[in-house]
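Honest question from a wet-lab person: if I give you the sequences of every part of a complex, can you actually get the arrangement of the whole thing, not just the pieces? Trying it with mine:
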Amino acid sequence: MILHFLFLPNFRLKMRCPGVWIALCILCPCLVFGGKVLVFPIDGSHWVNMKVIIEELHSRGHEVSVVRSSDSWYIKETSPFYTAITLGTGSGFDEDFLSNFVAKLLEIQREGKSAWMRFKLEMEIMQSSIKMSETISETIEVLLEDKHLMQSIKDAKYDLVLTDPVSPAGAVVARYLGLPLVFNVRWTSTGEGHMTIAPSPLSYIPMTGTELSDKMSFFQRLLNVIVYAVTEIQVAFLLPHYKAVIEKHLGPDIDYFSLFQAADLWLMRVDFVFEFPRPTMPNVVYMGGFQCKPAKALPQDLEDFVQSSGDHGVIVMSLGTLIGVLPRDLTDEIAAAFAKLPQKVIWRYTGDRPASLGNNTLLVDWMPQNDLLGHPKTKLFIAHGGTNGVQEAIYHGVPILGLPLIFDQPDNLLRIDARGAGKIIDIFSMDQDIFYQGIQEVLNDPSYRMNMQRLSRLHRDQPMKPLDTALFWIEFVMRHKGAAHLRTESYRMPWYSYHSVDVMLFLSGVVLIILCTSVAFIRCLLINTVIKIKRQ
Amino acid sequence: MILHFLFLPNFRLKMRCPGVWIALCILCPCLVFGGKVLVFPIDGSHWVNMKVIIEELHSRGHEVSVVRSSDSWYIKETSPFYTAITLGTGSGFDEDFLSNFVAKLLEIQREGKSAWMRFKLEMEIMQSSIKMSETISETIEVLLEDKHLMQSIKDAKYDLVLTDPVSPAGAVVARYLGLPLVFNVRWTSTGEGHMTIAPSPLSYIPMTGTELSDKMSFFQRLLNVIVYAVTEIQVAFLLPHYKAVIEKHLGPDIDYFSLFQAADLWLMRVDFVFEFPRPTMPNVVYMGGFQCKPAKALPQDLEDFVQSSGDHGVIVMSLGTLIGVLPRDLTDEIAAAFAKLPQKVIWRYTGDRPASLGNNTLLVDWMPQNDLLGHPKTKLFIAHGGTNGVQEAIYHGVPILGLPLIFDQPDNLLRIDARGAGKIIDIFSMDQDIFYQGIQEVLNDPSYRMNMQRLSRLHRDQPMKPLDTALFWIEFVMRHKGAAHLRTESYRMPWYSYHSVDVMLFLSGVVLIILCTSVAFIRCLLINTVIKIKRQ
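Yes, you can. This is the full assembly:
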């Protein structure tokens, strides 16, 4: 296996970097051990992250199999890094729905359409979630019913299942085959997390989607508690779709949450430079920024454009892969604001060329985002706030002007804003003046850049690179056939025992009995005394 | 600074070990930075641990100053590794008291003396704790009142204060001088730990001294809650001794706990191979086994003795530095049991030679414990259960027969027993048969050795050596002048906000108002309807 590693195509390149020597020395025990990993990914942007880990697993000599649906556009059937196991079912991931949703949301918010329209749209996304969970449930059913396929997976003797907890498919199969389970995860949907990750006091751990920080006023804490309750209700709506298939194949004792609690390892796609500090567990590994790497040289034409900016530098704008097109009025406002700047702008935009576009702005269909953010001339990143982009900006120390749209984007950008390393603008009400002012502020107030560069220094100052840390722990689980010794007993307890409710009731009962007995005794004594006095 | 490292006396030796290359590569950023560390250690066995870190800090080119009391026997005035700052006050650490306490405890328990005697002894140790906290309080007062000394400490521009939280002296001085604070810690005395380390549900996190594991029955959980309450009361007794001096020098807003909560880093002297898994915090670093190292060759006479054991192997017995002598009847029982064994025994014992001592047993005043435990012929470690010895046994994979006496010893050994890697015998009621049976069981049942070797494999399988991890994070705090970004907001909240008590009261109030209004409304409606019906 060491030989396998040494003769990998990019080995010479790797050996120039001292980091590889370190990794080589540290990871010697696992290099002599080539494992087999079964991956259940989630389509879309989550796949981008999973692929980074899969490629690294492959480069370290592990065999990877990826379970994909036949309609997947992101997860290809053939790859040099993995073998695909293609299922006839759909993935449940509907990219068109998501981009249409964002387009409609922008239209409704900008044109001030009725609250009813907004509510209808919210219902659409709720229905889409239910539809996705139904599809995933069908996938699990099809997979487990295919005895031939399941036997071949069993015979392949995988060392672990690596999956995204957005779908329970991987967790179900891991339990079914008795394999160690590793999650690659950004958020946990069930808020408080007591039973999933670690105790999460609602007083300083904001719920996902609340746009709250870890410093909350009384009414913000109240909101956080209410959102928690609502989320629990929403989750209760989604669960029944999995209940039947889980009980059928794994037995009546197994519920949805116990599958997640059984994970050997949680690889979290954040770190505490980006995320607010919070309680954690021994089996949670933080690998935020694992996808970041030093910038490579730009293609010559792009480099020429960047260099032409002189001392003013360059602004990079991208709203992620989902949002290539924006409403025409909005693009005109953005283009007009850019046209006023002395900086050069590189804007990933796939729609029609806005009429107000200045000479300083280059529209591109795709950009080498990491290489651009790592370029010394880049002064500002205008971003929608996807986790990947934000982590890359932290890694390269580039301040952010954030235009969040949906999902975790407002929450991600709030974390940058709270550290003074960026500013958020409401894209729904923004015009060219607001946008221009925002750009000016982040460019000209040196605190934004200084704060982001401080985050960058903190993020980079780790004993090991985040990707190496993630791989170390995945291989640890393979070497030791799990990591049960890192899992707390909380996972095996009913909620009333976990929260000591039974003990408290018992103690209250004892106190009550002592009180009642004492009162009865004193009363009795008093009555006797009174009777005695009366008799006297 | 790199040059400084390269020309250290033992550099050549170091360079033979690949681990040093790894450390050198990883720690490059800190090798070019020599920091200044002010250490407030605790005397006795805690100093043994602190010294390991001090020596490593020194070997990496940092300057270390150690604050000691003039009566300290452990912490020497002169050392090649640190400069001493000697105070005229006592350390509060009374070694004689502790060994006398253990001797009396053994006598009382073995001779079946009255419960009253036992209670008196417990009170003695409580009084000793109070006396120690008074001495520490005086030390802080003397130190802060010595303006000349404080000015010289200020002028020395230390980068951080490293201390043991058994005494708040280091934490007070760190706050007084505005320096980053790092703790080197084994246990936290305040049980639940919500406000000190991390949320610690009493349902599966046993209180120190309870001899409970993380798997508790209802009545064990009840006991755990009661012990928590008692500990809180005990702590409340000790606190007033510090209150006056803290308020006088740091201001009325600062209380005892807030000093601890302000720590930048907690270096815990355990890991989750030894300790039961539990919630933790981003600024808690686990360095269990940091003092362990590969065994060196034994002195020739000891090696000859060990080799003379043939295939039977060797048993190593030590009850720690505090307990060199045991009651005569007990030593006779132990010696007689050893005499029956085919193994050779090396016993650290400083008392008179027992009459029943066999030819196979070697009494020694001192032993190279780590080198003996790492010797391939060593089959069993008979130990009192101090954290250091237990960690060394885990590191070398030697099963333990435990004879716990006081402090954390029963808890430490319980962790080994719970993993099936050792067995505990009650030293207070033990005779030669019980002892002999215990030895036979751990020697002949292969599960003990297999389980301990599994723990050893898990413990050794880390991305970095625990001592390197500890040093990385100490130097991280120096480089970034603290680690405030790893400290949660919980530390700044009053208890009622932290536990959302105010929010819950508010929500209950709202629910109550809605209920009352609804009831009043319905009542009003009903009355009106009845009146109307009556009128009709």
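Two things worth pointing out. Chain A has four domains: 1-32, 34-92+131-290+465-491, 300-460, 510-535. Chain A touches chain B through 55 residues (CB under 8 Å).
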